[in-house]
Amino acid sequence: MTRVTSALAFTGALLIGALSAVPAWAQDYDPEARLAEMGITLPERSVEGRMFNQAVQTGNLVFTSGHAPCGDWPEEAGDFNGRGKVPSDVSPEMAQLAARQVAICTLASLKAHLGDLSRVTRVVRVFGMVNSDADFTGQSGVMNAASQFLMDVFGEERGRHVRSAVGMASLPVGLTVEIEMVFEVENN
Questions:
Q1: Phi, psi at residue 53, to the nearest 5°?
Q2: If you ran DSSP here, which 8-state letter would residue 27 be given?
Q3: Beta partners for 126?
Q4: Confidence (pTM)
Q5: pLDDT at residue 8 above 50?
Q6: What residue ranges in 41-159 does DSSP mark as E strands?
């Protein structure tokens, strides 16, 4: 064996060893490919607003502002526009669709900020606000749709997070759901 061949064999062995040390869930990590498999196209978003930004990074944490639903809704939403109080105006099931749609919009802002969702190493926190009637206690069930969506996109290991789900007497412009999130990301 020549020196070059030996060096290539050694380098290949190191790469194989390095890949085997990476957990299986991390080897094929591509949240944007997962979104495509789910039939979801993230809407174009800007992270800069007039009075505030949609996403701000400090260190390896990205904080998102409260988001509303945006983009293309699934067919089962019908003419629902993400506004109304649960359950007097909006069923808990439709509120779940709104929560999922808000999560999609949050990821669109995150992608606009990061450029690549594969930089996400962990969904850290989800804070969900549900526009609720005073006697409605199913906020957690509504927010489960957003939590499940995040785990579907980022995988169980990266997508599982801490969460609060609270009822609000009202939300801006009558929104059904508003969500803030915190993500841990790889530094450049």
A1: -100, 155
A2: H
A3: 163, 181
A4: 0.84
A5: no
A6: 55-58, 61-64, 120-131
